[in-house]
UniProtKB/TrEMBL annotation:
SUPFAM superfamilies: P-loop containing nucleoside triphosphate hydrolases. Gene3D superfamilies: P-loop containing nucleotide triphosphate hydrolases. It holds the Pfam family cobW. It comes from the Bacteria. The lineage of its organism: Bacteria, Pseudomonadati, Pseudomonadota, Gammaproteobacteria, Oceanospirillales. Coiled coil: none annotated. This is GTP-binding protein.
Length: 337
């Protein structure tokens, strides 16, 4: 296969809640009508929330890889999924969204390895950065947070409507201090990024960072993929999955699709959870199917197409106690009429 036929692969990395999925939605809306895209989404939790955040369409294939870190634990799963996507879907472009806790080093090693050397063309790595994150000293000292930015070729500043001018200026200054300089730093209002910034990029440069010790330890562990089955749990008995690694704990819940939730009660309950809780969910509510997204204490609600079932994922740093996610007493599941 010649270099001209290689499939462009774009990696959109960034820490938890930094707007990766929103940015990818913006890119999909700009997709040329004659192109077919494949989106590979990895998430720290095990119930596959992020895949459900994309509406189904014929020209965009979305594959979720839940249950671990794509960059270390799920390398074999990624290789199998990508080979399958390339063979079956024959996409013109692939976008990979690693977990917000994922380190890019292992992912790049795989994509630039022998298995894909003549098949894919790895383009510039784009990191999303929420300027508000820099107010937290723990984030500025977090190895994965820093390495995601250091290995990126370009940076998209997100959450502009929720950031102050001072936070935005500090983010520009923080990125400007990284070496080597980024190719570009773009402010993205509502996650809108011009597709030309991706399509005009050349192959990403190898920056030489090694995977930190915490990820190397995970790489030696058995893969967690596939531990959460596709069939729904029985009505009235939500299924729960938990996982802990890299200093964070994920809690996932899934309900039978026939169960509906009172949207106002649901939003109020999630609003009572700790501000540090990163929450994503899709719910069958009394007001139709809804996508819920909460980062840094701000909850957004959007309409969604039909989903296989209702599901929720919460990620918290291990420094905080995990609150109860027994939602039934609070949300009053409604019978289907």
């Amino acid at each position: 296969m010649s270099a001209l036929t290689k499939v462009p692969v774009h990696i959109i990395t960034g820490f938890l809640g930094s707007g990766k999925t929103t940015l990818i939605h913006s890119l999909i809306e700009q997709k040329p009508v004659d192109e077919k895209w494949a989106i590979l989404v990895n998430e720290f939790g095990q119930i596959g929330i992020d895949q459900a955040m994309f509406d189904a369409r014929d020209d965009v294939v979305v594959k979720g890889l839940p249950g671990g870190c794509l960059c270390c634990q799920l390398a074999f799963v990624l290789q199998a999924a990508l080979v399958n996507l390339l063979a079956r879907s024959k996409p013109d472009r692939v976008i990979i969204e690693p977990s917000g806790l994922g380190h890019p080093a292992g992912l790049l090693d795989l994509l630039r390895g022998e298995a894909f050397n003549d098949v894919v063309d790895v383009r510039d790595i784009i990191a999303t950065l929420d300027p508000r994150r820099l107010d937290d000293a723990r984030a500025r000292q977090h190895d994965t947070f820093l390495d995601q930015l250091d290995m990126a070729d370009a940076v998209a500043l997100t959450m502009l409507d929720q950031s102050t001018s001072g936070q935005l200026a500090a983010a520009h200054a923080f990125v400007a201090e990284r070496w080597p300089p980024r190719k570009w730093v773009q402010e993205t209002l509502q996650g809108e990024l011009s597709l030309t910034l991706l399509t005009q990029s050349s192959s990403a440069a190898v920056r030489g960072q090694e995977m930190p010790g915490s990820h190397q330890q995970l790489a030696a562990m058995p893969s967690l993929a596939g531990s959460f089955f596709d069939f729904p749990p029985p009505p009235g008995k939500p299924q729960r999955e938990t996982g802990t690694s890299l200093g964070y704990t994920s809690t996932g819940l899934r309900w039978h699709p026939s169960e509906r939730f009172d949207l106002d009660s649901l939003a109020a309950h999630l609003g009572e959870l700790p501000r540090e809780a990163r929450i994503k969910g899709v719910f069958h509510t009394d007001n139709g199917w809804k996508r819920l997204n909460r980062a840094d204490g701000t909850l957004s609600i959007e309409s969604s197409a039909w989903r296989q079932d209702s599901r929720l994922e919460m990620i918290l740093p291990d420094t905080l106690p995990t609150p109860s996610l027994d939602l039934e007493p609070h949300l009053c599941a409604l019978p289907v009429s």
